[in-house]
Amino acid sequence: MAFYIIIRGPLGCGKSTIAERLSKKLNAKSFSIDKILDKHNLLTEWEEGYISQKSFKKANEIISSEAREHLEKGISVIFDGNFYWKSQIEDLISKLNFPHHVFTLKVPLEVCIKRDQQREKPLGEVATKEVYKKSTEFDYGIIIDASKSLNETTLEIISHLPKPK
Predict the structure, then answer these.
(1) Is the pTM of this model over 0.85?
(2) Which 3 state secondary structure label does DSSP give 77?
(3) Cystine design at 52: which of 45, 56, 107, 126 (Cβ 3.0–4.6 Å)?
(4) Is 143 within the bounds of a domain?
């Protein structure tokens, strides 16, 4: 039975790398919310100093039909993004009537800053702090301590998923 996973958390917590590893281990299709926002020019509308809920819901609209096609074929799907608006998570869940799991990755701010600095194109300390502040305002789903190694974090997420029959 196919399912989808939402991996959320602050900038630099390892979401994209973990989503990539999970997609390989689970033979799943991975979607990056950041890439969808960028590709469809959805980074221009802001709300309370952050990318708007409307922009994220538009990204959900764009990716949910493709995700549904995979899920209907029995292929699991992984979404990674900050998901710093609860409404964005609930909107995506409402669009995809399939079993799902939401994981919130937790790491100290200092770890996020350090990991961002190691990127090919760092987003910077100010952006990291701002996204951290917003994305840690609430927890959703299963909380995962992602300050461990990426491999340990990936295995912990897998331990919460249904076992294949």
Answers:
(1) yes
(2) strand
(3) 45
(4) yes
In a domain, residue 128? The reply is yes
Question: What whole-number distance in Å separates Cα of residue 10 and Cα of residue 147?
Answer: 12
C-beta neighbour count of 125 within 10 angstroms: 13
DSSP state of 32: E
In a domain, 165, yes or no: no
Are 15 and 88 in contact by the 8 Å Cβ rule? The answer is no
Whose tokens are 């209907």? That residue is: 72
Start-end of H helices in the chain: 15-26, 33-39, 53-72, 86-95, 109-117, 125-135, 150-159
**How does pLDDT run across 22-65, given as a tens digit for each residue?**
999 999 999 999 999 999 999 999 999 999 999 999 999 999 99
Task: Determine the structural domain holding residue 77 and report its residue range.
Answer: 4-159
Decide if 15 is inside a domain. Answer: yes
For 93, how many CA atoms within 13 A lie in the half-sphere containing its CB? Answer: 15
Task: Provide the number of structural domains found in the chain.
Answer: 1
CATH number for the domain spanning 83: value is 3.40.50.300
